[in-house]
Amino acid sequence: PEALLSVRDLGMTFPGPRGTLRRKAGVRAVDGVTFDVRPGETLGLVGESGCGKSTTGRMLVRLLDPTAGQVSFRGKDITRSSQHELRPLRSRFQMIFQDPFASLNPRQTVQQIISAPLRAQGESKAKIQSEVRDLVQLVGLAPEHLERYPHQFSGGQAQRIGIARALATRPELVIADEPVSALDVSIQAQIVGLMERLQRELGVAYVFIAHDLAVVKHISHRVAVMYLGRIVEIGEKQQVYDNPAHPYTKALLSAVPLPDPIAERTRERIVLLGDPPSPANPPSGCTFHPRCPKAQDICKTEAPLLTIGRSATADRQVACHFPEA
Ligand code: SF4
Ligand code: MG
């Protein structure tokens, strides 16, 4: 099927710290990121904090301008479109943020918040009224909530408001940047379940950003794992979870709790050494090598490309010299 969103060699280089040699060379927060999002699917984008996943998410909808590469929406290159040219597309891709309270105007009622994208489109008052009523119901809020303000809601409810706002214009794509990370664990599954149901009902595609693989397991159709600004593995969900090919994916998965308690007690847990290195000072070769249990000499000097490796199919790509078979 035609890709909804095509991302090719996307990059973001921030200026380096002032007064250092890095100032001019810059810090590569995102480097060579390539993937497609298909209509109606969920691509889980996973990695530790600082790996560039939020920066990537923001570039996809041009909240940030990439310094390299290309983003196309339904075949149209939007990488260098002006904000004016983007305006008609704005209703077709939306964003959900990590902190629902920070992303909702505290002085606006729920009615005002959810209707804002519709007003921006110039919809009639009557149409907006009926749409907003549908939307609150769709996300599991009650009509009487419309007159209230964000601070009168719990985190989970506030995120429902953020979701209703994102879906108001019936977008084809929603970038959800850690939409449940700030919520109680007991609420997380409810919100993920809601997003899944809305996808079935509305056919919207998601890029669902998360810092662990457990959160995106149920909702994703495909998963991309990022490390230090690059995708190290991407593939169909079942393949990636059942047979991770990259040592980093394997380590992340070993931290995901298993439903079977016996399997949970006996399984091997891979503990990575140290913290992720700073993108301002990336290790040579494969940037994962200082933490990789499988690293060999070549890993210190040669960066592996994201390719279809021995263990991978056309639908799975891995950036490792020694992928799991
Ligand atoms: Fe580990 Fe080498 Fe593969 Fe990098 S290329 S993930 S260091 S085995
Ligand atoms: Mg982030």
UniProtKB/TrEMBL annotation:
GO BP term, example: peptide transport
Gene3D superfamilies on file: P-loop containing nucleotide triphosphate hydrolases (3.40.50.300)
GO MF annotation: an example: ATP binding
Family to which the UniProt record says this protein belongs: Belongs to the ABC transporter superfamily.
Protein known as: Putative peptide ABC transporter ATP-binding protein
Domain ABC transporter as annotated: residue spans: 5-253
Entries under SUPFAM superfamilies matching the protein: P-loop containing nucleoside triphosphate hydrolases
UniProt keyword list: ATP-binding, Nucleotide-binding, Transport
Coiled-coil residues: none
InterPro entries: AAA+_ATPase, ABC_transp_ATP-bind, ABC_transporter-like_ATP-bd, ABC_transporter-like_CS, Oligopep_ABC_C, P-loop_NTPase
SMART domains: AAA
A UniProt-annotated Pfam family: oligo_HPY
Highest taxon, organism lineage: Bacteria
